[in-house]
Design brief:
Strand content: 15-25%
Radius of gyration: 15 Å
Distance between the termini: 38 Å
Oligomer: single chain
Length: 115
């Protein structure tokens, strides 16, 4: 049983590392923190969701989920990322699900491809 648990944990770590430009790792079940962040301007049409990392995290980050379900950690102090959060929040102000254009308008073309 311990071997199975260890294998599952290693597989999860490997999957998180493989799927993200800046890995996202859980602190607890309801909190996401980024180990490091990047300055990658993700095309807005490919953005499905934008959230701020938990305030308990070591680094302030903005976590972008693409239409391909890839999570990318952006530097929370980066001006472009801050503007992205503001614009995304405006597009979902009326509780629209999914967000309105220019977000979430492009299809996922390849789940294994990074932005």
């Amino acid at each position: 049983m311990k071997t199975l648990l260890a294998f599952a944990l290693l597989a999860l770590i490997g999957l998180l590392h493989h799927n993200s430009a800046a890995p996202v790792g859980p602190v607890s079940m309801n909190e996401l923190c980024c180990q490091n962040a990047t300055h990658v301007a993700v095309p807005k049409g490919k953005i499905k969701d934008v959230v701020r990392s938990n305030s308990k995290c070591l680094h302030s980050s903005i976590i972008v989920t693409t239409v391909c379900e890839i999570k990318i950690c952006l530097d929370g102090n980066w001006t472009w990322a801050k503007k992205l959060v503001t614009e995304f929040e405006k597009s979902t102000a009326n509780h629209k699900n999914p967000p309105s254009a220019p977000f979430n308008v492009l299809p996922c073309t390849n789940k294994n491809r990074k932005m």
